[in-house]
Amino acid sequence: MHTPSGLSLPAVPAALSPVLPSRHELPAPGAGIRLTSDALPGLETVSPGDEDSVWLHDALLGPHSADIVRYLGLARSTGGPVLDLGSGAGRLAVPFARHGFAVEAVDRDGPALERLGNWARRIGPQVAGLIVTRRADLTELRLDGDYRLALLAGAMVSAVPPRARPRLLREIASHLGAGGALALDYTSHLLSGLVAEPQRTWAFQVPRFDGIDEWVVARQDFDLRTMSERITYYAARTGKLSTERVVLTTDKWIVDGEHLAAELHSAGLHIEGRRRHRIDERTESVLLVCRPDD
Asked: Residues 224, 194: contact at Cβ < 8 Å?
């Protein structure tokens, strides 16, 4: 359940209120943007989370779940191996391996890679044997192999600082084989909308199936001077005996589509396909498929 800021939140339990310190009070009525019930624009987490945040992490990536089908379709045209950058706990890597693709999964979060390996092994040796995990920060990535498909999915490109992005794109392009592709997606914000409303707040309930009732108030703070964004998640998790209050933060970068296109071109990649999905009147999700220049 998602509720736009600027509306009353009668369904949010009272236990959530103390989670919000005074400097992070909810904005006055009328602030915030409108939101459909099945989308959270740009709230996907890009920072490693602990074991207790797995449910929240999955909920934030939920709006991106359809990309698995799109990326699998692309992999069938390119073939493998597949490079999954910012793989997390295997949201894409494990389904790709189940479909017979060799996958190298790269992430900076060791526990997430451990969960990925455990998931693959539970399915069976055929799947686990197709996945290689590697712990690395994308800003310092050095690749060894050649790949037919590289993925920066779940808006992972927004986790890469602009100063580091050109080098990362060049590194990826230099390891794409003939007929290969880089596929990535990001949240595109209308800049005039960010100027008008540089702070946004959302409330939503996290789908859980373990007997815990979890509500989250997420606060987005945009800084157009640095083209950066900080998201603070104030969570209240209520079980049978007690309520746990948690504050999590993640820092991201606002992606400018024109700048990204220029960086791709400089890296020796051209945009072959672009898919846009409108979230609201000033926010959309953009998926790019890029090919190496001849």
From this structure: yes
How far apart, in whole angstroms, are the C-alpha atoms of residue 35 and residue 30? Answer: 13
Q: Find all residues with CB under 8 Å of 218, minimum gap 6, and list them.
A: 40, 43, 201, 202, 203, 204, 231, 232, 233, 234
Which helix (DSSP H) or strand (DSSP E) does residue 135 occupy? strand 131-135
Q: How far is CA 4 from CA 26, 41, 215, in A?
A: 11, 11, 14
At 104, the amino acid letter reads E
Spatial separation of the C-alpha atoms in residues 279 and 188, rounded to whole Å: 10
Q: pLDDT by residue (tens digit) across 124-145?
A: 999 999 999 999 999 999 999 9
Antiparallel, parallel or unpaired: β 82-85 and 103-107: parallel
CA–CA distance, 107 with 136 (Å, rounded to integer): 6
Cβ-based neighbours of 280, under 8 Å, separated by 6 or more: 33, 34, 35, 36, 41
Element containing residue 55 per DSSP (H, E)? helix 54-61
Interstrand relation of 176-189 and 283-292 (parallel, antiparallel or unpaired): antiparallel
Entry pTM: 0.84
Please answer whether residues 90 and 105 qualify as being in contact, where contact means their C-beta atoms are separated by less than 8 angstroms: yes
Which letter, b or e, does each residue of 125-160 get, where b requires 16 or more Cβ atoms within 10 Å of its Cβ?
eebbebbebeeeebeebebeeebbbbbbbbbbbbbb
3-state secondary structure of 221: strand
Backbone angles phi, psi at 30, to 5 degrees: 100, -20
107 near 135, Cβ under 8 Å? yes
Task: Indicate the range of 34-38, 151-155, 289-293 predicted with least confidence.
Answer: 34-38
Q: Tokens for 234, please give them.
A: 């104030």
How does pLDDT run across 248-284, given as a tens digit for each residue?
A: 889 999 999 999 999 999 999 999 999 988 877 788 8
Q: Residue 206 is inside which H or E element, if any?
A: strand 199-206
